[in-house]
Amino acid sequence: MSDSTPARRTLGRRPFLLQSAALAALGCGDDDGAAGDGSVLDGSMMDSSVDVAPSDHALVDLQARDAVLPDEGRPDEGAMDGGMSDEGAPDAGPAGAFQLEEGFFTPAKMPMDVVAPRPMAELSELSVYRYAYAGVRYERPVAVRGGAWPFHYELLRGPMGMRVGAFLEERDGTLERTPDYGVVQWTPPEGSDGDVFDVAVRVTDQEGNALIVEWRIEVDRTRFVFVAPAGSPGDGTREAPLVGFEALYGSAGDTRFAGRIAVFRGGDYTLVGDPEASGNVRLSGGTSPTAWLAFPDETPVFDCRRAKIVFTGGNGDDMFFGGLTFDGGRQDVNNAHFIWANTRFDRGVFWRNHFRNLERGQVGNDNPAAIFISGGPHRRHIAIVSNVFENMGPGGGNGVAGYDTFALDESLFEDNTARGCRSTHCFWLKGGHRRVTVRGETLVDGNAAGTVLLNVSLGRDGRTERSENVEVSHCRTVSEGRAFAMRTVWASSANETGPLWVYRCSVGGRFGALHRDEADVTYERCLSTEGFPTGETIRAVESEIVGGGDFDGAMRLVGAARERLIGTHGAEIAARFRTD
Prior knowledge:
Layout: E1 9-11, H1 21-25, E2 58-61, E3 113-116, E4 131-132, E5 138-141, E6 143-145, E7 152-157, E8 163-164, E9 169-171, E10 174-176, E11 183-186, E12 195-204, E13 209-219, E14 224-228, E15 242-243, H2 245-249, E16 261-264, E17 267-270, E18 281-283, E19 291-294, E20 300-303, E21 309-311, E22 319-322, E23 325-327, E24 337-341, E25 348-351, E26 354-358, E27 369-373, E28 379-380, E29 382-385, E30 388-392, E31 401-405, E32 408-414, E33 417-419, E34 425-429, E35 433-439, E36 442-445, E37 452-456, E38 468-473, E39 476-478, E40 486-488, E41 500-503, E42 506-508, E43 511-513, E44 521-524, E45 527-528, E46 538-541, E47 544-545, H3 559-565, E48 573-574
């Protein structure tokens, strides 16, 4: 081993000692366990332990609160050597109950399933979840689909100082998302290069079902390349970053930084593409970084008027875009995009990005969008979470959308916001979505009349399979003119299947549906100012038509309607906790 290669130390492998007051307040038991095959077992079937394989996300019952995660079968067994100690356990979240009263949450439509991070056996060497840089804050979302939301997050194992945002925050009687909700944060100390840490997070839903999410983090500076917008050119370290976007991607065939995680310092950049890729930035894990992160608390802004980002061919697995701003959009092409993924890939995350000021391009008839994931082979475990899409359009009959996606399985769209949408469709799930959750989308600010703000399509399209098992919940939408604020089913194809569950949504306008007698759709405890579709296979269950004056401009209930419906109907979560 050379002097420049740090020794590997494996830390944090001692069984977790339950010290959190949160667990005591939740009534910890000691007798239930779970299988790791994706099924939830009831208490009568469980043995006395939680058997968690190192690379599987196990589903466990809420009563298994005192279980110790086993170390058997883990490689590189070692002492703590500066990891978690009895005196410095990781933050497991605030004490107190989190389960809501019956009737104030909706029972699960699909089992809980982790979208990101996936088990270690699935993650490639390109995954940002696997690596940290000493002295730089590590922030990664834990994304979960299905289940009875809202979830509670607990850190069961991790290095000293690590924490996770545990639950929603109470404000004026309702529960609101905070920026750190479900996000793991930690700053590895200087001098920790080469250390390896195991992390385990328990995610529990309102029905008491839980997942244990496990992965491993290595502190490894060689996995990163840093870029600054200006200054003296360096070699890509944090102390001496590359300068300018062109220094990172260089010319065609430049593979110097293949497999690295690109970290951009705050400031302005210009995307410059490859002439051999029609002037676009062509990404592939074998030749260039496919994970782009903002340096913590800084805002890199990319001027995209000269190039779009294209995943075409090669390896797009474990792509990650986090904390970045994309502005403008190339207009000398038929259809404009910021990011266009038309290759087969699994495990992709778009998180905390800001996409703004995108028009349609020269024609705008073929899915112009900020994020376009085109048809073809199905992709799995894609998370589009906590992004802002601003000033999309104007467009034609096919966009400009914030996101426009085909052929996604086991994926999650959550906590995305649209402002100033001036197009025909704003958020659009098109053909071929299977086992997908859309949760907490907000489209209430300055969106144009006639816009279909949230369009969920069930039919087959081209090479994609028909959609099935899609849920849409806790979304707030309003369109000027109140036209088609939410529409379900595919606009030009029969063969709809479903089921599609739409529940606890607040809609200023109307729900729309096409081919209504072929799609299995349920609207449950939704609120609309203009009504719901009807049809043989369409059901409205405890949903209500309310007046426009029953909502404020952000589609939050007011007045007598708030007193009667808050927390049981519509998108808002009331702070009504169980006391037993």
